[in-house]
Amino acid sequence: MLTDSVSTTSTTPGVQRQQRLVLVIAVLASFVAFLDSSVINVALPAISTELGGGLSTQQWVVDAYLITLSSLILLAGSLSDVFGRIVVLRVGLIAFGVSSLLIAISPSAEFLIILRGVQGIAGALLVPSSLALIISTFRGPAQAKAIGLWTAWTSASFLAGPILGGVFVDYLSWRWVFVINVLPIAIALWLLIVLKQRDVREQGVRIDYLGAALGVVGLGGPVFALIEQGNYGWGSPAIFLPFGIGILSLVAFILWERRAKQPMLPLGIFAVRNFAWGNVATVFIYAALSIGGFILVVFLQQVAGYPATLAALAMLPVSFGNIFLSGVFGSLAGRYGPRLFMTLGPIVAGLGYLWFLSMGSEVDYWLQVLPGVIIFAVGLSATVAPLTAAVLGSIPSDQAGIGSATNNAVSRVAGLIATAMIGVIVAGTLDVDGFHRVIVVTAVLLILGGVVSFVGIRNVTGAAPAEVPPAP
Question: Measuring CA to CA, which of 17, 89, 194, 451 is 20 to 30 A from 283?
């Protein structure tokens, strides 16, 4: 952890250099994690074509990453306190880089899926540690500016990722999608050496290993059952046993977190109304984002016959909308309160997905895809910043770290479970009818997110909206 002596009033060249290095390191560390999460959907059809496995393989490639990421992201803060933020960040970077290279040479789908789980562990270490470095290095207005720059650059990964991935898949190989992580990771590791900053470890911090283990089993068991039930059937012990053990583990996780002295998830934070209702809205909204983003890109390639590059470019307006409109809606939410935007934004986004019901095996991008993408982009842009402001602005500043980690974990778990359920909704094979069912579910989830926000969120104006996006 960087020492607290770094302040925004310091103007010495040494302090300024240290701050610049920390910001670049934080951006690079987060960039690779965000890039990987934004690029993967484009590569899924090519992966399953080469390594086999069909839709279930595609689901596991996404969910293996999300299981470990979702389970361990809350634990990452404790690990940083015990072992030091720079140490944890360095370990995360090395693990992410090595696992990426090994994925690029995967001989089988099973090997790739296991390594995606390793990537998720590394990803859980990267984003919280990089933000912690910024928060402990910058103060006051400079901190807000640094977080804004971090947000802008990491948002660029969502813009660049699918395009790069599509080009690599179409003209080289899906394996190059994972190789592109290596350069920014190498630069970040070199800059950590150049930084020469002493790591500071907190005293008296205990790691909630039992909570982490229960979380992994509680998420992994039901997700395995949801993905593989099409192959074995719900009556098979291979399905109902993992499902039952997972549910029991989740119950045990909640009970343990209530009594643990230093819980991974302090449940008392949910007593805050906007935090609790904001996280419920997060479940619906981010479940919809995961299931909708997955199915649209895969359908355009596997059924409509789009090249990977064009399938990636189909959603490009969403990235531009987030970049240019999120700040506007965030400022409006800070002035008028988040409730209106969190209500109307998801509903508008849901209407955008309903537009895709006009798509069949032959797809006209300009009439059947682009209008829906634009409507969805506007709705999403109106949602994300007010949602983050409502959740993080409702709790004391000294709980902002755990609040952000909790909301990140909720969004990842929602995406994890939603992606696992795609096979149930599609009923085995992805065709036009199955695609339409997933689109309807996506729209309903988004609209429910708006209804939950209308019912539960209360306006507290005057607070600056947070600009920290969810972790990858």
Answer: 89
Is residue 331 scored above 70 in pLDDT? yes
Same structural domain, 231 and 364: no
Query: Which residues, 6+ apart, have CB-to-CB distance to 294 below 8 Å?
Result: 41, 44, 58, 62, 419, 422
CA-based radius of gyration for the chain: 21
User: Rounded to two decimals, what is the model's pTM?
Assistant: 0.80
Give tens-digit pLDDT for 148-161. Answer: 566 667 666 666 77
Same domain, 253 and 277: no
> What three-state secondary structure class fits 452?
helix
Please tell me whether residues 112 and 256 are part of one structural domain.
Answer: no
Residue type, 280: V
pLDDT of residue 159: 65
Give how far Cα 359 sits from Cα of 315, 364, 437, Å: 15, 8, 12
Instruction: Check: CB of residue 205 under 8 Å from CB of residue 81.
Output: yes
End-to-end CA distance of the chain: 22
What are residue 343's phi and psi, to 5 degrees?
-85, -55
Residues 221, 136, single domain; the answer is no
Please state, rounded to an integer, the average pLDDT across all residues of the chain.
Answer: 82
Residue 70 token pair: 């979702």
Nearest to 143 by CA among 2, 45, 243: 2
**Domain CATH number, residue 370:** 1.20.1250.20
The total domain count for the chain is: 3
What's the pLDDT tens digit per position in 254-298?
999 888 887 878 888 888 899 999 999 999 999 999 899 889 988
Report the distance separating Cα 457 and Cα 454, nearest Å.
Answer: 6
Q: pLDDT, tens digit, for every residue of 58-74?
A: 888 988 888 888 778 77
Domain of residue 446: give its range: 269-472
